[in-house]
Amino acid sequence: MRLIRLLIAFAFLAVGIAVGALNAQPIAIDLGVVTLRGSLCVSLLLALLMGIVVGGVVVSAGMVLPMSRRLRAADRAARDAEPLEPRQR
Questions:
Q1: Per residue in 1-37, pLDDT tens?
Q2: Residue 81: alpha-carbon gap to chain centroid
């Protein structure tokens, strides 16, 4: 399993190096109040990273937090419930 992970990591590294080598043109991004200058590769990688972060926040807010609240409520309800009959040993 570690070998497969290592091979996948090297494959992504190779793809990243290829993208960086093929997209080395300088660009300027005008945001209205400021102009950012950099290479196309860095801009693409930053946009990808920002997309991953925003997607993670959306998934966390949309699924993980409500499930966590439901789990806490179910745990609280289970703790408050009393057993009907005592256990016999």
A1: 889 989 998 998 898 888 888 888 898 988 889 898 9
A2: 38
Alpha-helix runs per DSSP H in 23-64: 40-59
- Identify which of 51, 28, 47 has the alpha carbon closest to the alpha carbon of residue 39: 28
pTM for this entry: 0.58
Q: How far apart are CA 35 and CA 28, in angstroms?
A: 6
Assigned domain for 26 exists: no
Give whole-number Cα distances, 30 to 14, 37, 56, 66, in Å.
31, 9, 27, 39
Residue 4 corresponds to which tokens in the numbers above? 């497969």
Domain range for 72 is 48-78
Q: What are phi and psi of 55, to 5 degrees?
A: -60, -40
Per the structure, how many domains does the chain have? 1
CB-based contact 39:26 (threshold 8 Å): yes
